[in-house]
């Protein structure tokens, strides 16, 4: 896994190269004020798939990048002071055969999923997920179970707000311990940046 800080304030993570696809994920902490950074990065590095968390976009805000299809799940204000945060997006090159999978609405957790069926490759799904720090730290595994069942060979990337010493955090939070337990129970691999940021 590659973790890089770009322009001192644009930190992203390259999950891995899978089927010759560069898959990047990034916690934007708001796209509107950082869209120029994002556009410059995409233009320079041209990743096939770019997953974004904490977009903080509202449905009325149009956002596009040339040569990419963009799928979003925006947080909508529903008498919840936290709802202005969150939001996820998946950017994928238009040239890559894919399909958007509508993601169920979850309480607090936000996710956006696509499926890919590449020639001579096993099909897989990829999800951008954001779990805010105020969400119940033990219930998110129900969401993960749902996302895993959306299609074969799932990849789920994002900001889980889960800390654990296994991936370099100084402490083990309840959500971090629950994520480790869940991963071991269902046999999934957790890839994390080499250092917490």
UniProtKB/TrEMBL annotation:
InterPro entries, sorted: Endo/exonu/phosph_ase_sf, Endo/exonuclease/phosphatase
Occurrences of domain Endonuclease/exonuclease/phosphatase (ranges): 25-179
Family matches, as Pfam families: Exo_endo_phos (PF03372)
Annotated GO MF terms: catalytic activity
Protein name per Swiss-Prot or TrEMBL: Endonuclease/exonuclease/phosphatase domain-containing protein
Organism: Araneus ventricosus (Orbweaver spider)
């Amino acid at each position: 896994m590659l973790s890089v800080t770009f322009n001192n304030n644009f930190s992203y993570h390259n999950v891995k190269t899978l089927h010759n696809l560069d898959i990047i994920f990034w916690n934007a902490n708001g796209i509107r004020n950082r869209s120029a950074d994002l556009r410059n990065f995409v233009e320079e590095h041209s990743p096939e798939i770019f997953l974004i968390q904490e977009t903080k976009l509202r449905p009325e805000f149009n956002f596009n990048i040339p040569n990419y299809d963009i799928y979003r799940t925006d947080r909508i204000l529903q008498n919840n002071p936290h709802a202005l945060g969150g939001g996820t997006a998946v950017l994928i090159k238009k040239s890559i055969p894919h399909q958007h999978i509508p993601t169920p609405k979850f309480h607090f957790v936000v996710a956006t999923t696509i499926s890919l069926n590449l020639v001579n490759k096993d099909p897989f799904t990829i999800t951008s997920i954001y779990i805010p720090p105020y969400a119940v730290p033990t219930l998110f595994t129900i969401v993960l179970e749902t996302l895993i069942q959306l299609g074969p060979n799932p990849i789920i990337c994002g900001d889980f707000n889960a800390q654990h010493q296994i991936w370099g955090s100084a402490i083990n939070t309840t959500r971090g311990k629950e994520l480790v337990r869940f991963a071991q129970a269902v046999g999934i691999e957790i890839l994390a940046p080499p250092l917490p940021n």
